[in-house]
Design a protein that fits this description.
single chain, 167 residues, alpha/beta, TIM Barrel, globular, disordered C terminus
């Protein structure tokens, strides 16, 4: 039996939490043209959510290029809720961006209003998470906060959204 969340959050008409399982498809292309094409193709599959793994994007370290791509992606996917994820090598991703640059990019992504949820790892540290939380509250962006206990490698997933309390 699947464990159900007692809390529900509605983002762009999609109920997250509760009994209905959702389908989230990743966007992983490295080039903008391929990413937009991928978004267009995946959209036809009618997923509940999309996740842009921005660490796969070749220009991930170029903030303006990321924001430009994000704007075009939002236009392409319409009202499908969009998760923005930027994982470093330590988090199992491809980004080599400094923590300072990562925070700057995530901040601008949230301020843009083109993403609904950001996904970050707790291993980025307390100061980083507190900064993200402040911006999240100001922009009403959802937050998936992940942490991994190294002893048994189990994942803890915490979802925070506009109506929920502080981390």
């Amino acid at each position: 039996m699947r464990q159900c969340s007692g809390e529900q959050v509605v983002i762009r008409g999609v109920v997250i939490g509760g009994e209905k399982p959702l389908i989230c498809l990743p966007l992983l292309a490295g080039k903008k043209v391929d990413l937009i094409q991928q978004a267009d193709e995946i959209k036809t599959l009618q997923p509940d959510l999309l996740e842009w793994r921005a660490d796969c994007f070749e220009q991930a370290e170029d903030q303006e290029a990321c924001l430009d791509c994000l704007r075009d992606m939002r236009k392409k996917v319409g009202q499908i809720p969009l998760i923005f994820t930027l994982r470093s090598h330590l988090e199992g991703g491809q980004s080599t961006m400094s923590l300072k640059d990562k925070l700057a990019l995530l901040s601008e992504v949230m301020v843009s209003g083109d993403v609904d949820i950001i996904d970050v790892e707790m291993c980025n540290g307390t100061d980083f998470i507190e900064s993200i939380n402040r911006i999240k509250e100001q922009t009403q962006t959802g937050l998936i906060l992940r942490g991994r206990r190294l002893k048994n490698l189990s994942w803890i997933n915490l979802f925070r959204h506009r109506k929920w309390g502080q981390i």
